[in-house]
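Q: How do we represent a protein-ligand complex in a form that can be generated token by token?
A: Start from the inputs.
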Amino acid sequence: MNPTTDAARTEQLVTTMTERMTTLTRTLSTWMHEQEHSLAELEHPVVRLLKELGTSLRTGLAQLAVPAEPPRSIPCSCGQAAVYQRERPAQVTTLLGPIHIQRSYYRCAACGVGQHPLDAHLQICAGSRSQALDELLALLGATQDSFVQAAQVLERLTLVHVSANSVREATEQLGALLLEHPAQPHSERPASPPRPASAPASPSRLYITMDGVLAHLHERGWSEVKVGCCDHTQARQDRKRPERLDIRAHSSSYVRALEEAQTFGWRLWQEAVRRGVLSSDEVVVLGAGAHGIWNIAERHFPRAIQIVDW
Ligand SMILES: [Zn+2]
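Then emit the structure tokens for the protein with zinc ion bound:
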């Protein structure tokens, strides 16, 4: 059967999915009859098989977006026509695991540019991850102790395997997006002074310092005000004592907050990313001996040189 209409293709998908569900139910029923199984024993295989069913459904639905008979040519951005070449496979990793899609490939003889119209339609590209998966990866990347751990938690939750690098990518993409569209400051807070522009692509060394001070506040009583700072330094010869180097901090930017250490840590990390911590050759964290400071340093700036009480 070679279905050519949308209705026929939908019917074929319905038939395929129904057959799969029937097979699945029969297989599990036989398994239950063969010997006694607890609900817990049943849980994993059922979840895994339902995921496989979901992957088939997702793939089938995506394939419905492919025209039954691809047009022989489509417009190219250069003004000429791109001609149909062949079907090409693409893999996209989703919350249901990897799905494989066949899509039509067109090439323009005039400008040599190739295109897959389905990619634009489904907002995918070969080897990409779905938006829903990326959101979950970023959430785990931002809340787990490491990207490796985030990938492990994802696999336990969804049975989908991704690399720690994928978690890092998704988390950094979200971080970049947050920096582009920061949350509006609380209306009662005074407007922040303008902050220095983002650091150049690869500042050689970034200093990060943080501390807390107890202040007695109206209504709140004694509370710790936390302050973090990112800066660079510049060395100059001391005019009076030329044998000495005079080292000064410059381009300092600050974050300050009345909040718990964990939230403050993320706020400081966000500022450090804005200041180029991910591309710095060297990162130095300076602070007093308080545990809170070094927990933040270990978690957010694990490769930093740590200097206690300079
Ligand atoms: Zn063209």
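The longest strand covers residues 221-237. Residues 50 and 109 are 45 Å apart (CA to CA).
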